[in-house]
Amino acid sequence: MTLHAVVGQVDVGWDIARNQARVVSFLQAEAGPGMFVILPEAALTGYDDGLSGLADIDQGALADGINAVAQTARQLSAHVMCGALLREQGSWSNAALYFGPNGERWTYRKVNLATHERGRLAAGASLSPLKLPGGRTSALVGVQLCRELKFPEQWHVLARRGAQLFAYLTYAANPAIPKAVWRSHLISRAAETQRFVVAANVAHPAQHCPSMVIAPDGRVLAESTSTTMHALHADLDLTAASDWVVSQQRRDVVGISYTGTDAGLSPSQAGLG
User: What is the pTM of this model?
Assistant: First the structure.
C-alpha cells in the first residue's frame, strides 16, 4: 500500500487566527484526497521554550481553529495531523490532533514533557497507534512530539504495537543545540525500527531539526530547513516497513514493557509479551 505524505513546514506564533489561516492555506495548496499531512507541534496555538503565551490562549479562537482544520480535512478528503496546546478539565496538555476525511478525530498527548513544560502541562499516559481510516489509505501511525525523539523505547513500543510509520511533530528552534544531533536521531529512529518517519518542524531561523521524510532503511527521501512556508511530498510504500530488526532483540538480556493507561492491544498482539 502506498500512502502519499505531505510535510508542512510553517511558521508558528501565538496569534491563533493567524496560525489557523496559515494552516488552512497550506492544506488548500498542498493536500488532496487520501494524502497524510503532518504539521508542526502547536501549529494552531503557538509555542516557545518559555510557553510565554500559554495564559493568553483564547479558548474560543482555538475551538474555531480546530473546527476550521477539521472542516478543511473533510473538504479535501485528506488525513491531517496538527499540533496544539489543549486545556481539558482544568489542565493543559501538548497534543497532536488528527482530523480525518470523514470527520474522524483522534488525539495524542505528549508523554515525555520538556523541562519547561513540567509543572505547567499534564503528561499523557498512552502510546497507542492511530489507525488511519479508509480503504487504500488504511495504516497504523505512531505519533511522537518534540523531545520524545530522545526516548527510542517509546518508538519501539509503538512499532511493536503495529505502527507502520511515525508522524513526528516538533517545535525545535534552539540555537544552543547542534543541528546535526536531532537530524541524526530522526534517521536512527527510522532505521532501528524499520519504519518510515515523517517529521514536521516549524519554519524558524533558529531551527535545530530539519523537516524530513525518512525511509525504513534510513535513506532521507526529502528534507527542508526553510524559514518560510514549505512543503515536502513523498510516496511511502508501507510494505517496506519490517520487523526484521526489532524481532531480534535479545529478550533474555533486555526487555521492553508497556505500562500505559490505555487498554490497547494485548501483550501478545503488541509483541510485548
Answer: 0.94
